[in-house]
Protein 1
Amino acid sequence: MRLLFFGDCMFGRGGAPFDENPFRYVGSFIREADFIFFNLETVISPQTLSEAHKEPKTFNYQSKGKQLKMLRNMTQATIFASIANNHSLDYGLHGLEATEEYLKKTEILFNQGDNPVTQKGITFLSATDHCGCNNLKKWGENVWVIDYNNLEPVLRKIWRIRQTAPLRGAPSGFIVFSIHWGSNWVTRIPPKIKQLGRALIDAGVNVVFGHSAHHVPPEPVEFYKGGLIIYGLGDFVNDYAIDPDFRSDEAFMCTISGGTDEVPFDLFLEPSTRYAARPPSAVLNKDCPECMLQHYDVGRVALVPVVRTF
């Protein structure tokens, strides 16, 4: 079993033209994966949504979805998208429903609210801890919003799923919990996020897939009691200006091999193609030693930061 994770995907604002295939530079990794996971932070609609649906927010994203078709055409892998984040309802409930309809047609899986989706032994859930909006109640009625002051319902939900996991198509079941957590810029992992990540593993999650920061956080991953917590991988693609202090022109992809109860994690991080609307000058692949600026070995984790020239 080979799982591929990459970070936030933002495909432009207001339906404006955007790179139609930001995945082309990492095609080898995508084609080798059996399961792919990413955070979709863009409302998707083939027809540009009216401004009348737009929520009163600082940033509102929408795209026609060609990027997702490109991804789907590159692989036969099962793809899971998290649509629980602070951009889920950028264009109201109409925009969320349009996104869900597009994902269904593109055969990309997602879960609704706190209802899990299971495919080929993988159970997937997604949630957010913030909305960046004026109406948290509206967000909470349509996507799963985590309350750090009351985590019991979340952990109880995981425990119940774990009890039925052997019936879901795998010897022991495999649970991935995708969580949009924390701020855009972080200098350390906040204690409440560490506590939540570990509590989810304790409750029965195999991989906690965290995302939100626009850069690779100081501690991208943590092994904990046989599980894996991904605190963040940086943005895979967006249209933001680069912040040199946070090195936001760098990102990771995370590949996990094994990961069942019988097979221990064998994890390494790969360079990704996060860029601001323009591709890097070099094609990134496994045989590109000049792409590797530094290499750190931390136990079973290899971090390969990559500097890209625009």
Protein 2
Amino acid sequence: MPLALIVHGGAGTIAPEHFASARAGCHDAVLAGWRVLTAGGSALDAVQAAVVALEDNPAFNAGTGAVLTADGRAQLDAGMMQGSDLAVGAVAGVERIKNPILLARKVLHSPHALLAGPGAEQFALDHSLPLCDPEELVTPAQYARWRRGYVDGDDVHLDTENLAELDSAPQRLAGVRLAGAVDDEHRHGTVGAVAVDGAGHVAAATSTGGIAAKYPGRIGDTPLPDPTRRPGPRRYRAQYAGDGMRLYGRRVGVSSRDGLMPLSQPLLAPNRRRMGHPHALRTRRQLPHFGAYL
């Protein structure tokens, strides 16, 4: 079975001057996952490795450097799913987990499907995953954005080299006004990966800080198996990102002998022939600067 891996760094529109750093980050994530696949690793291990690389890169809206809530905290969501048995593991609203996708993986191998907040963090401790200081997730550059007030496009991609860093760590503001989240077509920053391993098994993973200036405690679509992850065992592989809340209750894709026929626009869908598949993955639009594939 031909190996395949797709990595994306977030839907939306990023400024041209950020293309190079976005591509570089996605390239590093692809290499991390690809090394797993070529060494005989599983699709689940590959997407985990790729997403960890994106979570550790402060230029993306996931893990360290993710966007902040209205009151200045990083609350992270992540989820993963494997196509062989459709097992799912997800976490939501965690504030002390450096790599939420690692915790989602542990949930996947447990009797649970989705854990949130303090309960998810306790589950991490129970399964030997250390907690971090919440301040470690808040980068000076992201804090600077939050302090000035988020604007359109702030949760798509962050060029950390071009934002002045602050000397002081973030300080929580008492009685902060909980303003609405940035609400525009450029607000999407969820990262993710889809992989097919040598045994033909499929897996998908997603991770995000959510919407910039979101209301504290808000949980979006990322930790849910639908509509963001649909790794069918043989028929198709899909990874959606963007404002997934708008996909609830809608049919976003159907399978056919030609693969996935999207009824709403996917983030990144290269031609399947390039990945060694006999049929094309049809899409309305391709956004190559957001991701990479092998």
